């Protein structure tokens, strides 16, 4: 009996350790969680005294029968299904352990061991109303912040376009300010000094406070009108790139033309201000190109002819002649070949002597260009020998004839004299000096071959 009781007690302990899902009893429905669990009953059984072993055994037997019924109904005590149930529980436990182990810190440690870069974590703001992450614009490192075009159009005032009404209001204020400046100029001529603000206001017929306000409003209106049309200056300057001036100079000249158009514009012109300013800007840019694009300035009509020649060459190429000759270009441009050659020779761009010949070396054109003013060493030696032979040849003549030849051809001082001047020196007539010269030259010609002066014929001719 005691063995049976110990067997039942061990069975109760085994049932307490097992965990079962909710079961359905035959004809009773699901087992309510409010009912007392088996392990609580087991605890109560363990609390009985030893003398009530028979009662304890009976209760254990009832519990075992109840557990057998539960297992038979749910088929969990089957030999084929019970191990699968245990294995699934073990697999779930392993997956839970793997999930807890594979954290972000574990991945970072593995990436450090492999030498890989750390994963980039994107942080999103939770207070975004649209639910989308905020995209921040990053400035590209390739953009040059010192770009002249970027600095020229810096500021929001250069991106605001003006309506016709705003332009007319600004122009009226500018006209009033210009009239006040004219009054000031007249006062300077009248007083021969700088007028005071009171004198200036009295001459204009307004108070000094109104004078200051009108001057300030005119200045601000002028700046606003100029800034609103700076993009037109950029548009015109880009059309004239590659003609001898860089973009900065073209923008500067175009801005000067824009400021001049503000002073010259009249509301009675019958057009808007940008239409009027366009011509002033283009004229200023073209004038700057004519004056500063070349070292040797060319007249404006030459630039017109050059543009005509370029158009003619482009037309010849479009017609199929890939390499047009000067005759083809001249006929297409409507000019003669000689005029075309003179035009092309006049517009040649001069080179600096200090400019390097090759990009990878420091050799300049000055170092490799020969100086024509300096004679070659062989030529200078040949001339010195020829002078010595000529002096030796003059010894054949008489002293009087030798002196006449020296004076006549400037041997010695390099200043040849006329027959009359030589006659005054010797007290002879002009005809007599000519006769003596002719006779001396004949003697020299007779002795020319004897002294070997034929070797210098290359120097004389």
CATH architecture identity of the largest domain? Up-down Bundle
Overall tally of domains: 4
- Radius of gyration from CA coordinates: 57 Å
Instruction: Please tell me the overall pLDDT.
Output: 75
Q: What profile does the largest beta sheet have? A: 2 strands, antiparallel
User: What overall form do the CA principal axes indicate?
Assistant: elongated
Give the class-level CATH name of the largest domain: Mainly Alpha
Q: Which structural class matches the secondary elements?
A: mainly alpha
Strand order of the largest sheet: 1-2
| Number of separate helices | 21
Strand content: under 5%
Number of strands: 2
Low-confidence stretches: 1-8, 19-46, 76-98, 118-141
Helix percent band: 55-70%
What is the end-to-end distance? 157 Å
Task: Give me the strand/helix succession.
Answer: HEEHHHHHHHHHHHHHHHHHHHH
Question: What kind of oligomer do you see?
Answer: single chain
CATH fold-type name of the largest domain: Four Helix Bundle (Hemerythrin (Met), subunit A)
Task: Provide an overview of this structure.
With 461 residues, this protein is mostly helical. It has four domains: 2-77, no CATH class; 157-297, Four Helix Bundle (Hemerythrin (Met), subunit A), CATH 1.20.120; 304-346; 387-460, Arc Repressor Mutant, subunit A, CATH 1.10.10. Helix content is 62%, strand content 1%. Strand 1 (24-25) and strand 2 form a beta hairpin. The longest helix has 28 residues, at 164-191. It is elongated. The N and C termini lie far apart (157 Å). Its main location: plastid.
């Amino acid at each position: 009996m005691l063995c049976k009781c110990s067997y039942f007690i061990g069975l109760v302990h085994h049932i307490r350790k097992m965990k079962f899902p909710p079961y359905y009893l035959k004809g009773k429905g699901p087992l309510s969680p409010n009912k007392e669990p088996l392990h609580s009953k087991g605890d109560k059984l363990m609390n009985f005294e030893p003398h009530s072993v028979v009662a304890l055994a009976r209760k254990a037997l009832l519990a075992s029968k109840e557990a057998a019924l539960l297992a038979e109904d749910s088929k969990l005590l089957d030999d084929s299904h019970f191990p699968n149930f245990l294995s699934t529980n073990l697999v779930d436990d392993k997956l839970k352990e793997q999930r807890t182990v594979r954290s972000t810190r574990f991945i970072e440690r593995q990436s450090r061991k492999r030498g890989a870069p750390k994963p980039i974590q994107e942080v999103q703001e939770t207070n975004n109303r649209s639910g989308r992450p905020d995209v921040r614009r990053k400035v590209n490192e390739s953009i040059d912040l010192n770009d002249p075009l970027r600095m020229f159009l810096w500021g929001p005032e250069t991106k605001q376009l003006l309506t016709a009404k705003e332009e007319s209001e600004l122009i009226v204020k500018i006209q009033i300010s210009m009239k006040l400046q004219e009054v000031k100029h007249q006062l300077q001529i009248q007083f021969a000094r700088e007028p005071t603000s009171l004198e200036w206001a009295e001459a204009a017929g307004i108070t000094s406070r109104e004078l200051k306000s009108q001057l300030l409003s005119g200045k601000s209106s002028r700046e606003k009108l100029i800034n609103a049309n700076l993009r037109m200056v950029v548009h015109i300057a880009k059309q004239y790139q590659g003609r001898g001036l860089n973009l900065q100079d073209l923008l500067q000249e175009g801005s000067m033309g824009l400021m001049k158009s503000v002073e010259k514009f009249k509301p009675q012109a019958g057009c808007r201000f940008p239409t009027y300013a366009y011509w002033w800007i283009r004229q200023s840019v073209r004038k700057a190109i004519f004056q500063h694009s070349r070292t040797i300035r060319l007249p404006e009509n030459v630039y017109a002819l050059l543009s005509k020649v370029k158009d003619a060459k482009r037309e010849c190429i479009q017609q199929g002649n890939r390499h047009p000759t000067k005759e083809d270009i001249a006929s297409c441009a409507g000019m003669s070949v000689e005029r075309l050659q003179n035009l092309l020779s006049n517009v040649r761009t001069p080179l600096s002597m200090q400019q390097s010949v090759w990009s990878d070396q420091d050799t300049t054109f000055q170092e490799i260009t020969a100086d024509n003013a300096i004679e070659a060493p062989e030529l200078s030696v040949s001339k010195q020998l020829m002078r010595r032979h000529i002096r030796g040849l003059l010894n054949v003549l008489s002293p009087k004839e030798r002196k006449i030849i020296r004076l006549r051809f400037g041997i010695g001082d390099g200043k040849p004299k006329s027959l009359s001047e030589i006659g005054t020196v010797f007290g002879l007539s002009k005809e007599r000096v000519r006769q003596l010269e002719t006779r001396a030259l004949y003697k020299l010609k007779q002795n020319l071959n004897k002294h070997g002066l034929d070797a210098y014929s290359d120097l004389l001719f």
